[in-house]
Amino acid sequence: MTQNTSPSFxxxxxxxxxxxxxxxxxxxxxxxxxxxVQLVGRIRALVHQLQRERGASSLxxxxxxxxxxxxxxxxxxxxxxTARAFREHLDGWLEPGACAHARSRLLGRMALAxxxxxxxPSLRAEVSERTLSPMEAMRGFSELIRSxxxxxxxxxxxxxxxxxxxxxxxxxxxxxxxxxAGQERAIGAAGFGQGMFDGELRQSLLHRIDAQERSFRIFxxxxxxxxxxxxxxxxxxxxAAEVERLRRQAxxxxxxxxxxxxxxxxxxxxxxxxxxRIDAMKEIEDLLEMHLNECCSARITADRADLGAVRDxxxxxxxxxxxxxxxxxxxxxxxxxxxxxxxxxxxLNVPIVGHSVMDLVQRQATRLQSVEDELYAxxxxxxxxxxxxxxxxxxxxxxxxSEDQAYKLLRQTAMNQxxxxxxxxxxxxxxxxxxGKGGL
Length: 440
Description:
With 440 residues, the protein is an all-alpha fold. It has a domain at 14-303. The protein is 79% helix and 1% strand. It is built from 14 helices and 2 strands; from the N terminus they run βααααααααααβαααα. Strands 1-2 form a two-stranded antiparallel ribbon. Helix 6 runs antiparallel to helix 7 (199-222) and helix 8 runs antiparallel to helix 10 (265-323).
C-alpha cells in the first residue's frame, strides 16, 4: 500500500484551468471569425458594384461612348458609396488588440486590396478617355476584384469551425463563379459589340465558362440545400437559356465580320441576359451570407454555453474534492481481509481523485480531433484552389503566358494525362520549388 503523499500544488486544479482556457480560446477564435465574416459581407457588396461598373465600362468603350453613359455614371457613384462603407468598416481592424498574430496574412491581403482600390480613379480616367480597349478595361477591374476576393479566401483559410468553414467555402466558390460570370459578360459584350470572336477572345470565353463550372461544382458540394435549390431554379430561367444560346453562337461562329454576330443589338441582348443571370446569383449570395452568419452566431452561442458548463463542472468537482477530502490509499492488489463477495463494491468506494476531470480532458481531446477531421474536406478544397492559382501565376511569370493561356495549358495537360486539374497544378508548383526560380 502506498500512502497519500500528494504535493502541495494540485495538478487537477491546473488541468481545470487549462480546459477552461482552451474553451475560451475557441470562443475568442469564433468571435474573430465572425468579424471576418462581416468583412466578407462588405467585400461582397463592393465586388458586386465593381462588377456592374466593369460591365458598363466595357459596353461604353465598345460603343465609342455612345451608349451606357448614364448607367456608367450611376454604377460609379454606387461603387464609391460602397467603397466608403468598406473603408470605414476597416477602421475597426486597427484598434488595439485587433492585430493578432493569426491575422497577419489577412491584414496583408487587406492592405493589397486597399492598394488596388487606390488605383480605381486612374482606371476610370482611362475608361472615360477611351484609351483602353474593352478587354483592357475588363482586366483592370478584374485585377482589383481579384485582390478583394483574396481577402475572402484568407478569411476562409483561417476558419477553425467545420460548419462555418464549409459555409465560407461555399460562399467563396460561388463568389468566384459569379466573378467569372461577370468577366464572361464583359468578354461577350466586346465580341458581340465588334461583331466577331477571334481565337483569343473565344478562348477567353471558353476559359471563363469552364472555370465557372468548377467553382459552382465545389459550391454545390458545400452549400446548404436552400442555396443549391435556388441555383437549380436559376439554371432553368429564361435568361439563362438565352445566355447559353448566345454562348454557343460566340463559340461556334467564324472569326470574320459580316456574319450573324454583326447585329448591333446582339451585344445589348447578351449584356441584358448576362446581367439578369448575375443579379440572380446575387440573391443566392445573399442566402449564402445569411447562412454563414447564422452558422457563426450559433457556434459562438453554443461554445459560450459549453464554456459555462465546463466552468461549472470543474467548480463542482473542486467543491466535491474539498468536501470529501479524506486520507486515502491506492491499493495494488486486493486489500487484506476483503471479502471476495463484496470486493467490487469496496474497490468502487476507494476515492480516485481527478477521475471526472480526466473525463473532461478526454472529451475535449476527442472533440478537437473530430473538429480537425471535419475540417479536412473544406481545407482541401481551399488548398486546391490556392495551388491552381499559384501554378497559373508561375506559368505567367516564367513562361510569359497570359492568364487564359496558363489556365489552358494546365487544363490541356490534365486532359492529356487523364489527371485532375489540381493534381497537375500541384506537380507544376512542386517542379518549380524543386528547380528554383528558373525551373519553368
